[in-house]
Structure formats: C-alpha cells, structure tokens
Please model this.
Amino acid sequence: MLQHKFVEFIPEKVEKGVLYISIEYCTAIHKCVCGCGNEVVTPLSPTDWKLTFNGKEVTLYPSIGNWNFECQSHYWIRNNKIEFASRWTEREILLGRENNLERKLDYFEVPNIPKEELVIQKSLKTTIWQKLSKLFLL
Model:
C-alpha cells in the first residue's frame, strides 16, 4: 500500500511507501515497491501516465515497468494499492517501448517515418536528458 502526498516540489528525500504528486510539475515519484531503493519517476501527460484521484485514493495508469532497473519490477498502483504484474520478457519490453514511441509520435503528429529509420535516428541523437545530465556533471 502507498500513501499519497500532493506537493508542489518533490522532496530531496523520497520516503518509502509514499507516492509524491506534483500537479504543478505534472510528475509523480515514489521508491520502487520491490524494495531496491530506486526512485521511480512517472511523468503525467497525455502520452505518459494518467493520474486519477477519487477524493481519497490515487491510481496511475498504465502499469509501471522499471525496465532500466536491475529489479525490472512491474506493477500497478490502483487505489493506493500495489498490484504486482507479470514479469515481461525482453521482447515484450521492446514492443512496449515501440508502442510508447508510436503513441508519442501520433500525439505530436510527427510525420510517418519507417520504424527502422526512427530506431537509427534515435540511437544517433542525444536526448535532452543526456544533454542536461552532461551540463550538471561538468
């Protein structure tokens, strides 16, 4: 079970068992529920996660798949409760990532580019997050 806290800013120390939600910055963060200690960031947007609040409990949709963590935990947050989901294969993870990319491209009305070309372009481009991390690590 997670308790939720609506905050303006995410605190420096993220507590285990708490889902922090910043409506102002369209983001939610919590410690991975497997216990590994990693912080899980879920951006709230039309192409990422959706948050519902019924006045008492919160739900995030879709499921949370921590594919970049060693634990590779996969779960749902529904009505403040954790529901573990099945472990995904590498193929399922790849297909999920492709679906996410297609959803973003459709939403932002990016011209129809063959998937093979997108994969090549994506691997050659530096993401904004990589650029920002380089700035802060100098």
